[in-house]
Amino acid sequence: MSSAVTQATFDYLARHLEELAAQFPTSPEAVDLVTLADDIGMLTHHLGHTTELAQERFTAPHTVHLPERADLVRLSRAAAGIARALEPLTEALTYATAGFQREAIPDLADSPLRNDPEVLRIMTAEKYVVARARLRNTAAALRSTSTPAGPSTPRTTGPQTRPAAVAQPRQRTQR
Fold it and tell me: CA of 24: how far to CAs of 6, 11, 131, in Å?
């Protein structure tokens, strides 16, 4: 079975992450909670797709050889990067739905800022800045090629390990 994960796959995912990051609001006035929920949904879709690609290859792990494993490590790191970008966005959505006064600003019960939509938009815009940076870092990592290209070939010998029962105890040295 040939690899479903290629540099073209990485470039495609990187392009979509960069496009999504470019569409994130850049000011509090541009923040919209419906769009925030859509952005979370889109990132979740990309995370699911990335995970499915890895899962697809590991249904037959004996066919996944060393060069492809390096690609799957990159894919797993991309999934982690997407998850890190999701974190601040879901946090912002939590502030909006569970009451940001409890989540983000302690002891706000008597404050005039409690449930203030402008404060919510400012906080959400700040979360978008963090998510944008994380997505762009993930996209940049996907575009960089640090592993040599080559055919996926099996190892001719396995790792040389001794079973635990045969292992020799350490010798104590006298001083």
Answer: 28, 20, 9
